[in-house]
Amino acid sequence: MFKLKKILYPTDFSEASLEALDYAVSFAHNCRAKLILMHVVNEKIFSEGLSLARVSAPEALEQEMTAEAGRQLKMLIPAERRQGLEWENVILYGMPFLEIIRYAKDNDVDMIVIGTHGRSGMEHIIFGSTAEKVVRKAHCPVLSVKPPAK
């Protein structure tokens, strides 16, 4: 019988990714699995989104973004839901879908629970989908959680 031992929950702290958190925590509790909360500081922010001419110290910005991600990860799971839960926080730097897939494989993750923004049309063509790439390329099952319809 298949047993979940490690569940990876990558987040960008968006509303869509927070929808997936309830699923990840529930699976972790029900399966007595370790929950790994992950944020990837997107390297594209530094290479495309911000002109280095406008940012005098990109290393300082990266450090601040990493620190802020750490603060947010620590507060994701309410205290009452942490009880009896084994969990850890991981912050990486790079292309989110690549880092998620690499981490999952290198750390024997049994399942990934990820939120999807539900983009469509031109927005999907331009931005693509981290969740879609993870679903296609991950070595393990991926639960993709859509935000509720508005």
Structure description:
The chain has a five-stranded parallel β-sheet with strand order 3-2-1-4-5, sandwiched between helices. Helix 1 links the parallel strand 1 (6-10) and strand 2. It is α/β, with parallel strands linked by helices and 150 residues long. The chain is 48% helix and 21% strand.
Shape: globular
Number of separate strands:
5
User: Can you list the strand order of the major beta sheet?
Assistant: 3-2-1-4-5
Largest sheet: 5 strands, parallel
- The count of helical stretches stands at 7
* Strand and helix order: EHEHHHEHEHHE
Mean pLDDT, all residues: 85
Structural class, by secondary structure, is alpha/beta
Which regions have little confidence, pLDDT < 50, spanning 5+ residues? 122-127
Helix content: 40-55%
Strand content: 15-25%
How large, in whole angstroms, is the Cα Rg?
Answer: 16 Å
End-to-end C-alpha gap = 38 Å
SSE map:
Layout: E1 6-10, H1 15-31, E2 34-42, H2 44-49, H3 58-76, H4 79-82, E3 87-94, H5 96-106, E4 111-115, H6 121-127, H7 130-137, E5 142-145
Parallel strand pairs: 1-2, 1-4, 2-3, 4-5
Helix pairs in contact: 5-7
What are the key terms here?
48% helix; 21% strand; 5-stranded parallel sheet; 150 residues; globular; 7 helices; alpha/beta
Question: Care to give the gist of this entry?
Answer:
By secondary structure, the chain is α/β, with parallel strands linked by helices.
